[in-house]
Amino acid sequence: MTPADTSESVRARLGELLARSRARTTELTEAVDDGDLIKQHSPLMSPLVWDLAHIGNQEEMWLVRKVGGRDPVRGDLDPLYDAFQNARKDRPSLPLLNPTQTREYLADVRAETLDVLATVEFNGERLTKDGFAFGMIVQHEQQHAETMLATHQLREGPPVLHGEPLPGSIGQPLPAEVGIPGGPFTMGTSTEPWALDNERPAHQVHVDPFFIDTTPVTCGAYLAFMDMGGYQDRRWWSEAGWAHRQEADLHAPEFWFRDGGLWCRRRFGYVEPVPADQPVLHVSYYEAEAYAAWSGRRLPTEAEWEKAARHDPVSGRSRRYPWGDEEPTPTQANVGQRHLSPAPVGAYPDGASAYGVHQLIGDVWEWTSSDFAPYPGFEAFPYREYSEVFFGPDYKMLRGGSFGVDPAAARGTFRNWDYPIRRQIFTGFRCARDARPGELD
Question: pLDDT digit string (tens) for 301-312?
């Protein structure tokens, strides 16, 4: 294959991904009327119309101006749609574009972007090599699509989004846990062309032997913690976790409520009994930490999670995904907003890792015990505000992606982070424990 052939292949792939991202954004914003678009459904989230224009503004800045070297489409909008200048709670008071103006702006930006895509060379500078800047913007739009999906979960009213039916479980019980031998593995990546700066560089990490849950913790298992007074028993909570539990009056996962003697949940406007066989959803780090302590276990570290997900003990290499290097298919992972819900545990046997750990990609973001920290040799690129300004103990690491993550941002090295109190995002967890001496010999 010649360099020209390679460039055309990258160009075609990026065109498909840009279109797929915009189709999802359109679905999420056209599902509601303009009144819903401009309304703030929670101070934790932006109005949907802000997210929509911010998507266009980032695309304009990086692809039209920086890659294309073109004049601004709307340079006056930069201050309004700067996420660092404007806290989410304050965004409704800004002089934002109205929904019609926002759609027109996105269309104008996309026309310029496609012009740039048709002519750009992909074998030159770092920003354009392998189409990196375009891949970054695809991931940015998909990340905001997941944010907008979380806003849909917070909005009141009848359902406006509809997912496909969920797959069933495999029908046979899986082992409760999987043993992972100790030793080094390669964490992160230096070869993934669209990996973001916090995923780089690849480096060797030694992990002591440990056990990890075969699947995420289910609603049924979490209900047992609740039924045994887990939210009322100080023993299971860290000092910070207990203080937050009291201040926020936590007593169940977000969106759960009792209807008589039955626990139910609200999901995108639907009300349904809590499904015992699905991963628990909308729990904070502190709740996950307390459950793990109650069960006599702990949360995995980020390195343990990635080793369980990526390391192949036969070849010694780290895979892109738990099942191999190919992007996820519908039989391997619950991603792409297809089902609008986590799937029953055991529903994706084809997606198991080399060690036999299931559902590591998709379904729910999984809390780990690690703080957000740079890898050895980290270099901020292409801007400090993507990762570097967030490093430190304030944020806990989330891995694996949720049912709302697009495959473009669901690889095994992808890193997410948030405050340990957050519950509106699509979070769950699995537990781990140290291996006893000789247990994995």
Answer: 999 999 999 999
